[in-house]
Amino acid sequence: MTAAQKIFLAATGQNRGKTTASLGLTAAIAERGMRIGFIKPVGQRYLVVDGTRADEDAVLMKAVFGLPDALDDMSPVTLPRHFTTDFIMGRVKEDLELAVTQAAERVSGEKDLLLIEGTGHAGVGAVVGLSNARVAALLRAPVVIVSEGGVGRPIDEIVLNHALFERHGVRVLGAIVNKVDVDTHPQLPEVLAQGLAQHEIDLLGCIPFSRLLANPSLELIATHLDGELLAGTADADVIIGRVAIGAMQAEHAVGFLRDLTLLITPGDRGDLLLASLATNRAAGGSAVAGIVLTGGFRPSPPLLAEMREAGLFTFLVGTDTYRTAQAVDDILVKTHPADHEKIATIKELVGRSLDVDRFLARV
Predict the structure, then answer these.
(1) Using one digit for the tens of pLDDT, what is the confidence trace for 22-44?
(2) Domain locations along the chain
(3) Rounded to an integer, what is the distance from CA 201 to the centroid of its chain?
């Protein structure tokens, strides 16, 4: 039996689009009739499914594509709290490298291709002896590096990560740049291609920016913030267009309320809340997606009743405006198995953005 081909998907950092690339590539490869396996060797964010601790991306890929492999093989090493300290202090006796190689061997059995998804940048996992660069070398898998839009930052990050993979003797197939605003800057793919070529790195494709993929939904806001829903619904289908901090007079703030804004403002700013309601009515509900009220201040009963009547998402938190804005910014926009529209968008974007046949010929 011919051994499965392997691709290691790495990233230049957190939230660069590695899971997006994994989903899109898996769909495109499966459409070509190839039998594909998936493994996330080292998982930092995990779920417990039927008593098995597994990285959430492994859970996602198994659910979306109906993959037959056991979750503990698809996610052989997870890092619970205190694991790194225990490893450093010699309290972890398991042979982690062996666990990864044996799991990869089981998952790749009777497959044409094994997709291996890394965790963060090339050095992540080094603390437990399983950096992405080390795992790619261990599994003899060529690497694709995923970064995100811009010019200077993605090229700098890709070159830096390329160096560590190269140091470990790992072949880098090329790079994918995610969240590229090709509508506004159609020249960006050519600029990125030439910039990377100067470092002898091939640009394999650019995934266009999509607001649906880049921004959180109201459901995600309500799930990740510690607070109370006062009005409206935490709708998974309402994607936030932009975020505004309500720290100015209402007459000045109105200009910032557009394109499904999430307004973060102290709960005692009744003037801003009234302005949001009025602006949203005038825009047919498209100006303000919702409001996060900070400081634990509840609106007056008449104003709250008006917000409930309007069905405007209103979420009360106890933290101050600065910390709340930080928390919103830190929310990881992850894809879940129930995000059918998002998954369909990912498959379409990646399918038309990457020359998958040319890609596979390089493996």
Answers:
(1) 999 999 999 999 999 999 999 98
(2) 5-213+335-362, 216-330
(3) 24
Please say whether the beta carbons of 264 and 245 come within 8 A: yes
Kindly list the distances between the CA atom of residue 145 and the CA atoms of 132, 161, 302, in Å, as whole numbers in the listed order: 11, 8, 54
Query: Facing residues of 115 across strands?
Result: 7, 38
Q: What homologous superfamily is domain 5-213+335-362 in, according to CATH?
A: P-loop containing nucleotide triphosphate hydrolases (3.40.50.300)
Query: Rounded to whole angstroms, what are the CA distances from 162 to 13, 36, 174, 189, 352?
Result: 13, 26, 9, 19, 26
CATH code of the region 216-330: 3.40.1390.20
Buried (b) or exposed (e) across 246-266, using 16+ Cβ within 10 A? beeebeebbebbeebbbbbbb
The answer to whether residues 215 and 360 touch, using CB atoms and an 8 Å cutoff, is no
Q: What is the pLDDT of residues 174-187, one digit of tens each?
A: 999 999 988 888 99
Measure CA of the first residue to CA of the last residue in the chain; give whole Å: 18
Check for a shared fold between 5-213+335-362 and 216-330. no
Separation of alpha carbons 346 and 344, rounded Å: 5
Predicted confidence (pLDDT) per residue in 186-198, tens digit: 999 999 999 999 9
Nearest-angstrom CA–CA distance, 152 and 26: 29
Quote the CA–CA distance of 324 and 288 in Å, as a whole number.
Answer: 18
